[in-house]
Amino acid sequence: MLPIERGLEIVMSVAKVKDRPDRMLAEIVPLRDAVRRILRENVLSDADSPPFDKAIRDGFAVRFEDLKPIPAVLSVVGESRAGRAADVTVEHGQCCEIMTGAPLPAGANAVVMVENTERISPSSVRILKATQENEGLLRRGAEARQGELILRPGRPIGLADLGLLAGTGKSTVLVSSKPNVAVIATGDELVEVEETPKPDQIRNSNSYTICAQVEEAGARPLPLGIARDNLDDLRHKIRQGLEHDILIVSGGVSMGKYDLVAKAFAEFGVEILFDKIAMKPGKPTVFGHRGQTYVFGLPGNPISTMVAFHMFVRPLILFLLKADNTAPKILDAKLETPAKCDPERAALVPALVRFDAGQYWIRTAPWKGSSDLVGLSRANALIMIPRRSGTLEAGENAQFLLME
Ligand code: AMP
Ligand code: MG
């Protein structure tokens, strides 16, 4: 059985060979649709930011040298407001009323906030507190210079990036096109969510979780419904799925008599690179490829499917999107309860994590195994328990994946 890291290396090495420059194109999208997409262009600031010396307080623009001794009485020679600069020069002994976001008038070199002043008359003000040069203002270009590189390709566009793009006049943005990911659920026992299962049936939940994971990773899910546990049905659906960038089949990959997915993959000439990972849950995870399509068979149990997706499919999607960072995000915590290790397989166990006193603390959550969505939904993380003998003791460090 392959360790998780080795499995991931195999997926990525296939992707590196297969990913031709003309695949996974980029497309131009309106800014409003750009959040969370992967940026594919260098973005330069179209102007100095801020574009002028700008007040960041409401108050009075002054010459800081005038505020010795304090209090100091200054004459008010104008008003500068956001969107309407004052056409004055502040001379010795003078000041200009100013609002946040307004341009600093010539001659002034600091802004005293209104809380530290006392208006004496319409034309004079008493300044109660001294100030330093450049206090209460931001100089032109302090955040970025015109032509400066402010965003590089490969970033997922975050909220700050979105605001930055808007601020620099990018109404459209070049981002990676979304890979198409076909999703097939398998099983004679499955019914759709709207249906009432008979005593020996269950509802198809994997199609929902996988499609949501595909979307979260930045790709486009194409749910192809349920294939029954017979070769005809599997062939029919797999043929459709192989038309897309990635095909994910859930269930039917274990050792049962009706686990026919591997056989169906073989019929289509899918080259299988692994079919077992030393991981619990998620052992019967299958990965292969055919032509331009990456093919996954994920174990049917709901938690196994989710975990296997997270470890192997998500990094592949991020790679195809040309994202800078493709690795699963793994964090460190102190273990609050002991956790038993398995010498055969690394385990990913539902857990409760909290942040306290500058670090994460984690303990395993009650759960009944790889089908227990109730247990998982009450957890907020998955602890990664290393493949080894013995026990990970309370107080030891443990790695975990944070779940949303
Ligand atoms: P399998 O990998 O096909 O042997 O399935 C393992 C377990 O996962 C069985 O209990 C299945 O009923 C269950 N299962 C398989 N597919 C799904 C699905 N799409 N939604 C929910 N449970 C599933
Ligand atoms: Mg099955």
Describe what is shown at a glance:
This protein has 404 residues and is of the alpha/beta class. The chain is 19% helix and 32% strand.
Strand-helix topology:
Layout: H1 4-18, E1 26-30, E2 43-44, E3 54-55, E4 59-62, E5 72-80, E6 94-98, E7 110-113, E8 117-121, E9 124-127, E10 137-138, E11 149-151, H2 159-167, E12 172-176, E13 180-186, E14 190-191, E15 202-203, H3 206-217, E16 220-227, H4 231-241, E17 246-250, H5 261-267, E18 271-274, E19 279-280, E20 286-290, E21 293-298, H6 302-320, E22 330-335, E23 339-340, E24 346-356, E25 359-364, H7 373-377, E26 381-385, E27 391-392, E28 397-402
Parallel strand pairs: 5-6, 13-16, 13-17, 14-15, 17-21, 19-24, 22-25
Antiparallel strand pairs: 1-12, 2-11, 3-10, 4-6, 4-7, 5-9, 8-9, 18-20, 20-21, 22-28, 23-27, 24-25, 24-26, 26-28
Helix pairs in contact: 1-6, 3-6, 4-5
Residues 186-187, 229, 251-252, 300 line the site of magnesium ion.
Q: How would you describe the overall organization of this protein?
A:
By secondary structure, this protein is an alpha/beta fold. It folds into four domains: 4-24 and 177-320, Molybdenum Cofactor Biosythetic Enzyme, Chain A, CATH 3.40.980.10; 28-49 and 143-176, Molybdopterin biosynthesis moea protein, domain 2, CATH 3.90.105.10; 54-138, Molybdopterin biosynthesis moeA protein, domain 3, CATH 2.170.190; 331-402, MoeA, C-terminal, domain IV (Beta-clip). It contains seven helices and 28 strands. The strands form eight sheets. Strands 7-4-6-5-9-8 form a six-stranded mixed sheet, with no helix packed on it. Strands 16-13-17-21-20-18 form a six-stranded mixed sheet, with helices on both faces.
